[in-house]
Specification:
With 492 residues, the protein is α/β, with parallel strands linked by helices. It has helices at 8-13, 32-46, 61-65, 105-108, 125-141, 160-166, 218-225, 234-240, 248-253, 286-300, 325-334, 349-361, 374-383, 399-405, 416-421, 440-454, 457-468, 474-486, and strands at residues 17-20, 51-56, 68-78, 81-90, 99-103, 149-153, 178-182, 211-212, 215-216, 228-231, 258-260, 309-313, 340-344, 366-369, 386-389, 409-413, 433-435. The strands form 3 sheets. Strands 3-4-5-2-1-6-7-10-11 form a 9-stranded mixed sheet, with helices on both faces. It has a 6-stranded parallel sheet with strand order 14-13-12-15-16-17, with helices on both faces. The chain has a two-stranded antiparallel sheet with strand order 8-9. Strand 6, helix 6 and strand 7 (178-182) form a beta-alpha-beta unit. Helix 2 packs across helix 18 (474-486), helix 10 (286-300) crosses helix 13 (374-383) and helix 11 (325-334) crosses helix 16.
Length: 492
Amino acid sequence: LFRSPCFPSLVHSSMKILHISAECYPVAKAGGLGDVVGALPKYLCALGMSSAVILPKYALRWVKEHRFIEDYHGTIRLHDRHLPFTIEREIDDTLGFPLFVANIPDLFERDGIYASPEGYGYDDDVSRWLGFQQAVLQWVAQFWEKPKILHCHDHHTGLIPFMVKYCPEYRALKDLPTILTIHNGAYTGAFSWRHIDKMPLFEAHARNLLDWADTIHPLASAIRCAWRVNTVSPGYLDELKAPDSHLNWLLNNEWHKSSGILNGIDAQVWNPATDPLIAHRFDGDINRFKAANKAAICQRFRLDPELPLVTFIGRLVSEKGADLLPGVIERALENNAKMAFLILGTGDPALKRAFYALRDRFFWHFDASIEYNESLAHQLYAGSDFLIMPSRIEPCGLNQLYAFRYGTIPIVRSVGGLRDTVRDWSEENPRGIRFDHFSTDDALHALYRASLLYHDEQTLTGFRKRIMDLNFSWEKSAEAYIALYKGVSSPL
C-alpha cells in the first residue's frame, strides 16, 4: 500500500480510511489516543482495509529521525493570517501503514504536543487545531480519488464533519462519510465565539451546529454532524449518556448513530515472549518470569523484593485518580502494610512533591520515577504484582490490558472500560480486583484483598496464567471498526 511517494495519484488511489489525529504512537504520544491511532490502522491494513494516518508535524525526536517527502503544499487562512503549509509523507512506511504529517511551522514546530516539556500549555490552541483541520481538508479535496471515510479522533479533529458539510471551500467532500471516535469526552476543545473569524467560510444556516453552551464546541459539533459516533468502550458510552454527563442530552438524542467499541492492544508491541524492553522474557514459566523482572525493578529502585509490588503507571492528574494515591499509600504504610509501591508518570507538580515526600519517609516500601518512560513502563508491567488504576474517568483504559498480557493483576475502580474489562476476584473467571467508590477506604480495602491474593500462592499462579491467556488484541476491535465503516460507505 502507498508505495509510490513520487506519484501522488498512486498514493491516494488505494486509500480507504484516513485517520486524522493529534497523536500516533510512536511518532507523538501523550496518552491512550496515541496508542490507538498507532495500532488500529496497522491492524486494519492487515485485514485488507487500506488505512493511513495524518497528524501535525511536531518538532519531536521521532519526526527528526525519519525522512519525509512533500506530497502537497498550500496556504490556510486564520482571520488575517495566511500560513503556508506542506503535507509530507514518511518515506519508508516504518509503522506498517502510510503516515502523513501536516507541516505548519508557525503552529506545530514545537517540542511538545499539547504543552512544552516543562508542562506549560500553549496559548494558541484554537489556531493550532483549526489550522490543522483546514490543511488536512484542503489536501484531501484535491485527491483525484477520495478516501472512502474520514475517521476523526477526539476534539482536535471535531470540526471536520461540520466543515465537509457546510464550508463551500470543501464542497468536493460534502458526501464523504465521517466517523468520530471519542477517546475522552472530558476534553471538548470548546472556545469562544470571538474566534469565529478563524473558521473557514460556512453556510449561515448551519451556525447552530457549532454552538453548545454559548461556545464553538468541536466535540458537540462532531457528535451532531458525523455520520457515526463511537466511544472506546460500551461502558463509557453509557456514562456519557448518564444524567450527570455534560453531553448526555446530545448523545441520547443521537443514540441511533452511537456505539461503543472496546479498544485493543498491539500484541506485537506488548508481547512478554519477545519484548526487547524487559529484563527477562517469558519462557513458559509465569512465576519465574515475574520474579526475575521484579528483581530487576527492585535493584533499580529502593524496594523490598519480598513484598507484593503495586505500581501506578500514567499521568499524574485527577482524571486518573492519581490524587487519591498519596493518602492511600501513606495510610497503608503507616499501618504497617506489608507492600511496596512504585509510581511512574508525569503531571501535577503538587503530586510530584507528595510522592517524593513519601519516598523520603518509607524506605524500601515506596519509590517514584516522575517521568515519561516507555521502556520503564514495559519493565513495570512485567515485574509488578499488581497495577492500581483508581480512575475518576476511564473511557477504555489500556494499562489494565497491558497488565493482563504480562501477568500483572489490575486493581481498578469500576468505571468505563475498566468495568467492561476487569471482572472482580469474587466473580466467575476473575481478572482482577475492583472497588466502586473514589475513596481512601475503598482503595485500602482493595489493597487488603490484593495482599490476601498475593499470599495464596496457588491462587496467585492460576490468576496470572488466566489473565495472560486473555486476548484483547486489536484484531477483534479492528473487525468491529470494519463493520462500522461498511455501514456508512459504498463497498470498501
